[in-house]
Every structure is written in structure tokens, then in C-alpha cells.
């Protein structure tokens, strides 16, 4: 298989195209990606507190333009970022010249790299990606496979309920115009119980879950363990082999 050929059975090309079109604005903190920049410190700190990134080998699945990948590298991890969008990856690589960080970016699916680099990573992150693929369970299995025994796998996605529809689609895309219209498909949102089941079926232990809440008046995001009604983060661990 050449570098330009990929098994795209679990890739939604329409979803990839959405982010390709926006790629040039990925690092503009006042663009459509402002919410990602705003929540990034919360996400990175959550991961670091639970997995202690310094000196660890990490892979960021669905890295996009590299916002989280760079944060993980700044916290001392050796980072690889993968995505199926050529334009976001080009932006991610270009931004390294500005940040001076070293990150290995590659256009490849989670499933493909899991075949090649099984059990190579201490920390696997897959944030804001599962709601954009046809088969999230397949990605979760690949993340488990990439992780070393005893390692950490982190997921984040959006809950599926009327409040999430109101906040993540109507509010964010239409009223506040924080995101481009059509960014999210409500049918692809994943309830915490579903994500927990996918993780357990893949062989991961679910250790913690927290919500990311947004106050539109103060424009501040916070982590809240008691509110996973819209955006939420999940920490799982791969059992240590006997």
C-alpha cells in the first residue's frame, strides 16, 4: 500500500472535507476553532493530571491542525499526531515552525496505525473525533490496540440528548455562531453509557468521566464531574497483562 492509499472504510469523506475547508483558520484563536483553543488547556491538564505526560510516548488520534498535539508536547510527551485530512495536517506541520516543537504527523487511520504500532504508546488521545466517523467502536478498539498494557486512553465527545442538541448545534452553530453550520450531526453524538460500553468491549477499564460546561455569559469553560449532559471527557486504562 503506497502512502497515498488508505483503507478508508471507517472514514466519512464529507466529515474530512468540512475540516479541510477550514484548515487555514485552525490556529486563528478568533476563528471557528476558538472553542477548541478555549477548551484545550482544560483537556490537556486533565490528561496530564491523570497520565503524567512528561517522558511519555503519546499519540493524538484525529489530531486535526495539532492544537492538542502541541499541548501534549509542551507537557513533555513525545507526540505523534494522525488524521485523514491533508490540509489540517499541512497546517499542523507548518505551525511547528512557529512553535519549535517536534511532533511526528502522519495521514493514516487509527485502524491502520494500530496494525503497525500496536502497544507502542503510553497515552492515546482521541478527542472530538468519535462523532465524526461511521464506526466509533472501531476507532476505540484501535486506540486500545495502540496503548501499552497499563497505559491511558482518553476520549471526548458530545452526549446525545435534547440539551446537547440545543447547546452543541442550535446554540453553537446557529445562535452564537461559534462553529460553522453543519459541523455536527446529532445522530452521531454518543451517550456516556454507549461510550463506556464501547470502551469495555474493546478491553479498556473506564476509570473516570467529567463534563465540559460552557457559560455563554462569561464565555468560560469548566470541567464538572456532575454534568456530562453536553461535552464530556472519559479516562480509560488498558489492563496490565499478567
Concise description?
With 242 residues, this protein is α/β, with parallel strands linked by helices. It is built from 8 helices and 8 strands. It has an 8-stranded mixed β-sheet with strand order 3-2-1-4-5-8-6-7.
Strand content: 15-25%
The main sheet comes to: 8 strands, mixed
Please mark out the parts with pLDDT under 50 across 5 or more consecutive residues, or reply none.
Answer: none
Based on secondary structure, the structural category is alpha/beta
Mean residue pLDDT: 91
CATH topology: Rossmann fold
Strand neighbour order, sheet with most strands: 3-2-1-4-5-8-6-7
- Report the CATH architecture: 3-Layer(aba) Sandwich
Please give the number of β-strands.
Answer: 8
Sequence-ordered SSE layout with sheet pairings:
Elements: H1 13-22, H2 34-51, E1 57-61, H3 67-74, E2 78-83, H4 86-99, E3 103-107, H5 110-116, E4 121-127, H6 136-146, E5 147-158, H7 162-175, H8 192-202, E6 205-215, E7 220-224, E8 231-237
Parallel strand pairs: 1-2, 1-4, 2-3, 4-5
Antiparallel strand pairs: 5-8, 6-7, 6-8
Amino acid at each position: 500500500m503506497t502512502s497515498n492509499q488508505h483503507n478508508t472504510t471507517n472514514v466519512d469523506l464529507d466529515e474530512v472535507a468540512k475540516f479541510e475547508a477550514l484548515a487555514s483558520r485552525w490556529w486563528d484563536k478568533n476563528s471557528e476553532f476558538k472553542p477548541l483553543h478555549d477548551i484545550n488547556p482544560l483537556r490537556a491538564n486533565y490528561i496530564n493530571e491523570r497520565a503524567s505526560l512528561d517522558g511519555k510516548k503519546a499519540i493524538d488520534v484525529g489530531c486535526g491542525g495539532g492544537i492538542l498535539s502541541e499541548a501534549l508536547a509542551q507537557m513533555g510527551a513525545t507526540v505523534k499526531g494522525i488524521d485523514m485530512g491533508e490540509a489540517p495536517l499541512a497546517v499542523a506541520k507548518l505551525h511547528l515552525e512557529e512553535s519549535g516543537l517536534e511532533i511526528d504527523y502522519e495521514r493514516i487511520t487509527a485502524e491502520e496505525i494500530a496494525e503497525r504500532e500496536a502497544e507502542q504508546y503510553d497515552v492515546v488521545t482521541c478527542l472530538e473525533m468519535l462523532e465524526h466517523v461511521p464506526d466509533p467502536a472501531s476507532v476505540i478498539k484501535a486506540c486500545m490496540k495502540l496503548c501499552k498494557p497499563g497505559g491511558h486512553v482518553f476520549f471526548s465527545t458530545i452526549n446525545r440528548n435534547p440539551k446537547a442538541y440545543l447547546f452543541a448545534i442550535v446554540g453553537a452553530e446557529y445562535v452564537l455562531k461559534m462553529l460553522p453550520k453543519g459541523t455536527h450531526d446529532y445522530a452521531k453524538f454518543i451517550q456516556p453509557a454507549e461510550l463506556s460500553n464501547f470502551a469495555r468491549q474493546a478491553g479498556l477499564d473506564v476509570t473516570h468521566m467529567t463534563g465540559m460546561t460552557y457559560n455563554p455569559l462569561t464565555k468560560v469553560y469548566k470541567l464538572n464531574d456532575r454534568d456530562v449532559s453536553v461535552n464530556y471527557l472519559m479516562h480509560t486504562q488498558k489492563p496490565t497483562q499478567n
